[in-house]
Specification:
Elements: H1 6-13, H2 17-24, H3 34-46, H4 53-60, E1 65-70, H5 77-91, E2 95-100, H6 105-117, E3 122-125, H7 132-139, E4 144-148, E5 157-161, H8 163-176, E6 182-186, H9 194-209, E7 217-220, H10 232-247, E8 252-255, H11 258-270, E9 280-282, H12 289-292, E10 299-301, H13 304-321, E11 328-331, E12 334-336
Parallel strand pairs: 1-2, 1-3, 3-4, 4-5, 5-11, 6-7, 6-8, 8-9
Antiparallel strand pairs: 10-12
Helix pairs in contact: 1-2, 1-3, 5-13, 8-9, 10-11
This protein binds a DNA duplex (20 and 20 nucleotides) through residues 5-7, 15-22, 25, 27, 30-33, 36, 51-52, 54-61.
DNA sequence: AGCCTCTTCGATCCTCAGCA
DNA sequence: TGCTGAGGATCGAAGAGGCT
């Protein structure tokens, strides 16, 4: 069975292929009689015709595809990001090609090359690139926008979140509740995780303001153990918190993200302690689960939808109008206080 | 064998002819 | 003169076929 083409539609309707193109693309600058228009639409419906996107791209030099690169799908933050990007891109007539790097540099490079070969119209990074040199090189031929950390050395438009401020917000919140012994638990801090480091710096800076910096306990999983298992981050939170409670007298635990905070919550519950009466727990990202579980997790919202929308707008502006400017937009995070944090 | 030219795929769009 | 719609060039890559 051969897929019907515009020529088949034209033959059935008794018009030329160009007339089919005018009608189906609803060209306002060309007048077509209502009778011809109806004949074309009927023929297209009868044949169940859909335009061949590759052929269209051949002529227009547009694939209407945007490549979205994310580091993992196991953390619900990234599906949330993907969904908001997909929805907004669709409303502008674009489709998304999703690439999951599993936080591996070689996968990132592979997908960048794949997306270039697939002739996508633009690329969105859902995180700060681990390979900025390659991303910069590709951005000279394909529009690229990063939804990640602000980095002035990278000449790519970036829609960032102030992770330092996010850390400060959490720190200030816990201090205002009277917490003096605070722990920060995290997946590996080495190498690639700029946002993890900035969150920590923000927390440190706020504690320093109150002369509490020395009280901060930092527990990080080692880089060698980083995995793509779907429960990996929850396990880190669980294991690090279990050790923490045995070894120290912390009254508040900050997870590097909500998933790690979930693990902390489980560990505390398992040790017959109460959240927040015995230990307060908070995280970052404001994923939907942090609102659903009990107690709800105090966290920092990333304004994911707004940032996704802006990233697509910047990308489409460059794809459509050839806008060469490099934009660096930084959003201020929002603290979301829920039941998992309380007074000491 | 190696190189070059032509053809093919399907949709789009510019140009132009026919007609009222 | 304006409306309508046909003809054909064009896009990029791959394969076929011809020539040296």
């Amino acid at each position: 069975m051969k897929k019907p083409t515009s020529r088949d539609v034209a033959n059935l309707a008794g018009v030329s292929p160009s007339t089919v193109s005018f009608v189906l693309n609803d060209r306002k600058d060309i007048s077509i009689s209502d009778g011809t228009r109806l004949k074309v639409l009927d023929a297209a419906k009868q044949l169940n015709y859909t335009p061949n996107q590759f052929a269209r791209g051949l002529k227009t030099n547009q694939s209407k595809l945007i490549g979205l690169i994310i580091p993992t799908i196991t953390n619900p933050y990234y599906p949330m990001l993907t969904q908001s990007i997909e929805e907004y891109a669709a409303s502008s007539g674009y489709n998304i090609l999703l690439c999951n790097t599993y936080r591996k540099v070689e996968n990132e490079e592979f997908y960048l090359n794949l997306l270039t070969n697939k002739s996508v119209d633009g690329i969105i990074y859902g995180f700060t690139p681990n390979y900025p040199q390659i991303a910069c090189k590709i951005s000279s031929s394909i529009p690229v926008v990063i939804i990640g950390e602000k980095d002035d050395t990278v000449k790519i438009s970036t829609v960032a979140l102030n992770s330092f401020m996010a850390g400060e917000m959490i720190g200030q919140h816990l201090i205002s509740l009277g917490h003096k012994n605070i722990a920060f638990i995290t997946s590996p801090l080495e190498g690639m995780s700029l946002s993890r480091q900035k969150r920590l710096h923000g927390i440190k800076s706020k504690l320093k303001e109150y002369n509490l910096e020395k009280n901060l306990v930092i527990k990080a999983e080692s880089y060698e153990n980083e995995s793509n298992d779907s429960t990996y981050e929850i396990e880190i939170g669980y294991n690090l918190t279990s050790t923490l409670i045995k070894e120290t007298k912390v009254t508040a635990v900050i997870g590097v993200n909500d998933m790690v905070a979930f693990g902390a919550l489980n560990a505390i519950n398992n040790m017959q302690l109460k959240v927040p009466e015995d230990i307060s727990v908070c995280g970052f990202d404001n994923i939907y689960l942090s609102k659903v579980i009990r107690p709800g997790i105090t966290t920092v919202d990333h304004l994911t939808f707004h940032r996704s929308k802006l990233a697509i707008d910047i990308l489409i502006n460059r794809m459509g109008n050839g806008d060469e400017d490099v934009y660096r937009v930084e959003y201020e995070p929002r603290l979301i206080v829920r039941e998992s944090t309380g007074p000491v």
